[in-house]
Amino acid sequence: MFNIKGMVIASEPMWRHTTFAAGGPADLFAVPADGKDLRSLLAAARREEKDVFILGGGSNILVADSGIRGLVVDTRLFNEYRVESAGDKGSGTGRETGSGKPVLVIGAGLPVSDAAWMSGSSGLGGLDFLFGMPGTVGGALWMNARCYDEEISEKILWIEAMDRSGRISRITMNKKEWGYKHSPFQTRNGGELTILRAAFSMSPGEPSALKTGMREKRDNRESKGHYKAPCAGSAFKNNRAFGAPSGVLIEKCGLKGLRIGGASVAPWHANIIINEGSAKAADIRRLLDEVAGKVAESTGFHMEPEVLPVGDW
Hints:
19 strands; five-stranded antiparallel sheet; Uridine Diphospho-n-acetylenolpyruvylglucosamine Reductase, domain 1; Uridine Diphospho-n-acetylenolpyruvylglucosamine Reductase, domain 3; alpha+beta; four-stranded mixed sheet
């Protein structure tokens, strides 16, 4: 069925590929080596009428215990990293960046924290706020990753993506299509575009200062317990209309430590749901629903989950 340079595995357990460490097997799990491989995989899936799910770092998804039907494509080998200037051939920006201002082109499969450290260490500021965040550049783009009052969309010049028929297009930045935890890739082409790479407008900076700032951000994440147990980071989106962060609402409702099966609301941060070690995906989803329901009942506010359910629920 597949003739690619990368690999294809049958019945691959998805708990190995998500930060929740939960979830059943993918029918087929592929790691394409390049764009040609990806095009071949998409064509084969189309012929066989198989669904396709594009996996980044698995840091914001919850895979069903029954797994994922069809084909999962892992983008880890789309990990290019190169620096250009705005005037370089092929660096077409879609907006003025200033003569010679650095443009950083990054593959979708590169871990976003690695991209931040690599660029900051070489004196390029702009992505340093993402250091310590799990997931890939592609995933961060798909969800318009946000932290410390900055969004990845503020740095984008263009993004290249492949549709399900194998056509590649370059999408220039249009601020109207981006919002809080929202990108056009969630809806454009039915959500079926695969991000390949993106170009970012960077600012020259002092490497030592950038690295110091990144370490401080990582330490801040660590102090909040983001790395203590398998989780997906924030479980619910914040909403200014609520008058308080979602974690504060959850805590005020007395839900810290609430447990269903092997999943619990982290005792150190109410907007983190953790796998204590033996949680099923169903435990985690039930807990998400329970927390949202209790907060709505108590406050009238309906929190929106950040975690995306994936697979055969």
